Amino acid sequence: MVSWIISRLVVLIFGTLYPAYYSYKAVKSKDIKEYVKWMMYWIIFALFTTAETFTDLFLCWFPFYYELKIAFVAWLLSPYTKGSSLLYRKFVHPTLSSKEKEIDDCLVQAKDRSYDALVHFGKRGLNVAATAAVMAASKGQGALSERLRSFSMQDLSTIRGDSSSPVPPPVTVRTSSKQSKPKTSRSASESTGSSGQTCPADSSHVPVESSDC
């Protein structure tokens, strides 16, 4: 664990930050010799970083693996060994020179394929998004029409219910004069009979009181 931390710090500080600062100075001073020197170093360091990704997975158990990484970075940077220049001139430059045309063709094909794939997937994404938007709009319109239809049917049923319910006619109280008149005549006749009622005179009979007639 300690070896891994130390190796990461050495690669970060001495393998990345230190060459980056001197590359800046070479660009600023426009020194072609220093510029070429650090460009060769960055090419070798890029290959080292790519290989390190896989070796850390499969060779981390190897004894002194991290110590060897630290020693390799120091060998690349040392002005005495000039490891980066040596590796570039002996191995990298001849290999890239012989395979340069094939690499360029592969890069062009990959660029075209990636562009076509990007356009294809972009079109598919737009079609899917447009279809989803149309379906959402149609569903929303259908739900709105059903809602409005339910409201209209409810209002229509309410109107029909109100029109079918009978309105009770107003109740009027009428007094019958025909019924009052007989009562009046009857009462009058009763009063007349009671006032003018007499018993017939009969000599043979003893007069009785009017109450017995």
Structure description:
This protein has five helices and no strands. Helices cover 80% and strands 0% of the residues. The protein has 213 residues and is mainly alpha-helical. It has helices at 2-29, 32-58, 65-77, 83-164, 177-196. Helix 2 (32-58) crosses helix 4 (83-164).
Topology:
Elements: H1 2-29, H2 32-58, H3 65-77, H4 83-164, H5 177-196
Helix pairs in contact: 1-2, 1-3, 2-4
**Overall number of strands:** 0
The run of helices and strands is HHHHH
The level of helicity is: over 70%
The averaged pLDDT comes out at 75
Q: Helical region count?
A: 5
Could you tell me the radius of gyration in angstroms?
Answer: 61 Å
Give the class from helix and strand content and strand pairing. Answer: mainly alpha
Distance between the first and last residues' Cα: 148 Å
